[in-house]
Structures are given as structure tokens and as C-alpha cells.
Amino acid sequence: MPPENAKTPAGELPPLELLRSFEAAARRLSFTLAAGELHLTQSAVSRQIQQLEASLGVLLFERRHRALGLTEAGGVLQRAVTDSLERLRDATASVRASAAPRQVSITSTPGFASLWLIPKLARFTSTHPQVDVRVSATLDVLDMERSRIDVAVRFVPIGRGVGPALFEESLIPLCAPQVAASLRELSDFSKLTLLTIEYPDHSEAPTADWEPWLKVMGLEDLRMKSTVRFTQYADAVAAAVAGQGVVIGRLPLLRELMRDGRLVAPLGEGAASHRGYFIEMSRRAAGNRDAQDFAQWLRDEAEAAQRS
């Protein structure tokens, strides 16, 4: 029996490291295995158990030849320590989870991100100030689970859309007001610079080509004065706003630029592209309430834009 004068005062808990060593040794019934689990030496675990027994004034283990067993007091303490450590682990995990940053990850095309999403994004962040929004603007179709994406806005042919539709796309030539002023008749259109985009190494990527509009207008053989090609649609739009030529306007992405007069439709006729934007949710988003709120916000913004 450990000496009485080594006892811990009544009501005072032994040090936590002694209890952790006891729990491991009691579960393994081996000081050696407990030492390996705790990254300590066998002699260190043995000393800690002896120190704990001395502080309690009772033996916790029966030391047998090549075997270790719990005394009655050891069994009582094991049950209490195991339960307490489990509750501590659960509480710690809960606290960490509640302290984790709230985040929504979204992927979309660069054109959608820069021309439609970003100008409206402050309306979401103002009502969800604790949520970090991560936008991945790329032409690559990212694997949502592998890339830890919550929400994807996919630009695809109408028949291939997955998830709720945001809106369908229509195409219409747009240019700056000063460029439009030089157009007197349809034949003047050929005197302008064509602003277009290309997607090298992305044969399946959506394009903003002119074919749907040219076909509707019966202008398949139209030749422009010159052509300037961009790799990003937003750059072609910026060139049009600067008066450098005419771009095929993808609506409703450019609706705001038309509303404030920076771009106008000189010919006033559009054509459906038979493509649209669809919201796709990942499996991980099912447990992310902020991601679900973000997807609903996208739908609300699209509906509001169509009404205005």
C-alpha cells in the first residue's frame, strides 16, 4: 500500500498526464504497450502509475508474473477516467467545429464570375458577414468532391443541364455608343472590328462565337474589317466598352452594362444560344447550410434580374 503521506488532498484531482497514462495502461493491461501508444518509455509509465497510486493511497494494478490486472479500485477508476476522457474528446471536437471558419466554395466560368457574380456578391456577404466565399473562376470542369467545391455554376447546352437552371443565354452584338453612332445600315456592320474569344486546348468548352446570331440574321458570309481575339470573355467585353469594336453580347451577363449605357445593341436583334447556366451542388454541400443559402441567393438574384 502506498504511504498515506503521499495522498492527494481530498477533492483535488491528480494531474491529467497521470490519468492518461493510467487509462492507456488499464485498457492495454500492459505498461509497455501503453508506453508505445503515449510515446513514452516503459519505465516512465511505470513511475507515473506508481505516482498516481501514491496520490490516491490505493493500488490500481495487480502486478503478476508477465501479466497485469486491475484491482477493484483500478476498475472503478478506469470506468470513470474512460468516460471523462471520452466526454472531453467530444467537447473538444465540438468546440473546434464551432470555431472552424464558415466557408462556401464556388466554381464557375471566368465570364460568369467577373460579369455577373462579382458585381452582385456584396449583397450576399452583407447578409452573411461570417461566411468566407471562395470563387474558383476557370474553364476547367472541376471535380467538386476532390476540389472541395460546394456549388458549381455550369454553362452547358440546355439539354445537359444538371440541377436548377439560373437562366438561358441569348446572344446579341454589342458595342460602345460612339461606335453604334457610325452604323447607318446593316452593311456598315462589316466596317467594324470583330471582338471574339478562343479557348485553346478546350475543345469542349463553351464558346461565345457569332454563329447563332449570324445564322438568324442570314449573315453567315459576313466579313468584318478586322478581328481581335481574346482568351477571356471579360477582356473582349472591356475592349468593346472602350470603343475598340463589337462583341457578341451574352445575356444576361451584360445586362448591367446595357442598362447603364456603356454598351448598346446597334441592330437590336438577338438569338438564343441554346445554352444556359445551371446550379450543381456537391455531396459535401448537404451539410453546409451556408452553401445552401448561397445557392438560394443565386436563384433569387437571377429571378430579380429577369423581373427588372
How many angstroms does the end-to-end distance come to?
86 Å
| Major sheet attributes | 8 strands, mixed
Radius of gyration: 34 Å
Mean pLDDT: 87
* Helix-strand makeup class: alpha/beta
| Anisotropy-based shape | rod-shaped
* Quaternary structure state of the chains depicted: single chain
Q: List low-pLDDT spans.
A: 1-5, 202-208
- The percent range for helix content is 40-55%
Give helix and strand order, one letter per element, not per position. Answer: HHHEEHEHEEEHEHEHEHEH
Total E-strand runs: 10
How many helices in DSSP terms?
A: 10
Bin the strand percentage. Answer: 15-25%
Q: Gist?
A:
About 40% of the residues lie in helices and about 20% in strands. It has about 300 residues and is α/β, with parallel strands linked by helices. An eight-stranded mixed beta sheet has the order 4-3-5-10-6-9-7-8.
